[in-house]
## 1
Amino acid sequence: MLIVVLAVAGIVFVGLNVLIKSPATESSQVATVSKQKQIKKTVRLTAIGDSLTYGVGDATSSGGYVPLIKKEMELRDQTNVVTSNYGVSGDTSVQILKRINTQKKVRQGLADADLITMTVGANDLMHTISNNISDIDLAKVITASKTYQKNLTKLIQAIRTENPDAPIVIASIYDPFYVYFPKLKALQQGMDHWNQTTQTVIKNFKQTYYVDIDSVMTDPKGSVLATSQTSTKTSASNPFLYTEDHFHPNNRGYQAIANTLIKKIQAIKSTWLYEE
């Protein structure tokens, strides 16, 4: 008899427990749905940097990679993207920092941004090697990278002063000389070290991301490598480079850069796409 009573009591307890918990579970599910974030109607993208951000070599003169990633963001995320392009050809990290410190419109553009992209470092390196790419002093490059590291740190700190939260996506530099001088190991090592310095700095800042464009721009499919150190530019080619200077990207190059940037931008869209 006792066993029967205990069994009935157990059944009643389980039944009551189900009745009590079910509404709570349903309420929890409803609460989860209600907490889904809303996509921003407008996303503000601020691009800052050197000639790659400005768009030298872009036959459309519309701003290089910037309008390309704007178009892709709007297509993928169904939001309106407003861009501000503060790229200046020839700027080093120091000069970009100076513009932030002296130009109110640049500071405001950074402050208003939901997402920030930046190209930086190529001109710093070029000043170091003084365009003497056939006789690079790697030790000098490594020493100069320490100064670049300090300057880039100050630059990102200045951006963070204006905007503590927006993700910053920073592109690597690439080697536009590789197809013409594929045997210059010191040049490649110098480029690699410069990119490693950028990555070292980025690790010290939250929501700051590195994107490798070197792998898509330095030796893309269709390139023709020079067969000797003395080969002229006409005997080698990189299909992603602007033929006027053999340095900056052409339209295909900017599309390749945009494709690489958008992968990272999409991977981190939880940081810029949704309302808080």
## 2
Amino acid sequence: MSPNTTQRWLRRFHPCPDAPVQLLCLPHAGGSASFYFPFSQALSGSAEVVCVQYPGRQERHDEPGITELHTLADRITEAVAEGTDDRPLALFGHSMGAMLAFEIAGRLEDAGTTVATLFASGRRAPSHRCPPRNVHGFTDEQLVAELAALDGTNAELLSDPDVLRLILPAIRSDYEAVETYRYRPRPPLRCPVVALVGDRDPRVDLDEAAAWADHTARSFALQVFSGGHFYLSSRQAAVVGLMRQHLTASTLLGAG
């Protein structure tokens, strides 16, 4: 993977080479790297936030989306291996991003890289298969209604036909990756896992979030926030505080 290719995948909105830890942030289905801009700003100094940009959106809009989640995880892992340094590396993923963070953490550990902490937000544990859905096969109108119900996309964007023409293909490819994902059993991760979930999330209940404990051989914590699937937008300060606390602990104790 060339440096230019790596740069397409990874964004540093607030470069901080002196920060003690790097935090790789993976967006939700249909999301982009810029979703994590405020988190990067808030954590600046405590961590260097590295945001993943999937193909098919924003400046990568002319690239086809990747519809197979394991393939997407492979590509991101390659970019991370070449685009990060030897500081401790933690991962944060929301919804689809949590699945990717889990898969990438496993690939990094298998390659000998120590992962400091995995933050899994708004997603049931990988071993808990989702009920069959076919959102990626919805009509445009049905897909827009699905996005509106989750309250994670600006309502003005969803009512703009020109914007929809740009964003719906990426959203559809992401949903296909999520809905066709099959967990491949593997040994528990060697890093601590922190699961985060909204108490009114229509897609994840507390038992499904707590089942992330089965995927680590280290410590596990479950943090429940007030809110729905996109609780982290309204609870940003609390989420950032929690991440800072765990990142500091993992750095002081020695990553992994």
